[in-house]
Design goal:
Distance between the termini: 12 Å
Structural class: alpha/beta
Number of strands: 8
Helix content: 10-25%
Largest sheet: 6 strands, mixed
Shape: globular
């Protein structure tokens, strides 16, 4: 499982020109599910996302997490995080989970965030979405449950 985590001042997702989700200050997470991902991968990414200390403390040092400030989180499915463009110019997405498998872990990720009493918004799995954000910093962190980076 992979995630691109961005600290944002605001973010929104639109489908067919209509905003379906939006948040203020918090995290916008692009979440990609690989074909062999399981609960262990989900747990790793969930813990990392919620505990990343990328928000400033009282001294202006990035030392606080999403949970510390009870901020919002917007989760957007992103199968292209497993795009492999090493050969040629057209990425291959064979490592991305199939729709019926990927949606299960995507929805489970959202459910687990909600169980933590976080303010969770999300995109529409598999839809063609427009994502807008005001990146704060900018701060962008890449996570991979296989720890490839």
């Amino acid at each position: 499982m992979r995630a691109v985590v961005q600290r944002v001042k605001s973010s929104s997702v639109s489908v067919d020109g209509k905003i379906i989700s939006e948040i203020e200050k918090g995290l916008m997470v692009l979440l990609g599910v690989e074909e062999d991902d399981d609960e262990k991968d989900l747990e790793y990414i969930l813990k990392k996302v919620t505990k990343l200390r990328i928000f400033d403390d009282e001294d202006g040092v990035m030392n606080k997490s999403l949970i510390d400030y009870n901020l919002e989180i917007l989760v957007v499915s992103q199968f292209t995080l497993y795009g492999d463009a090493r050969k040629g110019n057209r990425p291959s997405y064979v490592r991305s989970a199939k729709f019926n498998e990927g949606i299960v872990l995507y929805e489970k990720f959202i459910e687990e965030l909600e169980k933590m009493n976080l303010k969770v918004s999300h995109g529409e799995y598999g839809a063609d979405m427009d994502v807008a954000l005001v990146n704060d910093g900018p701060v962008t962190i890449l996570l991979d449950s296989s720890k490839k980076f």
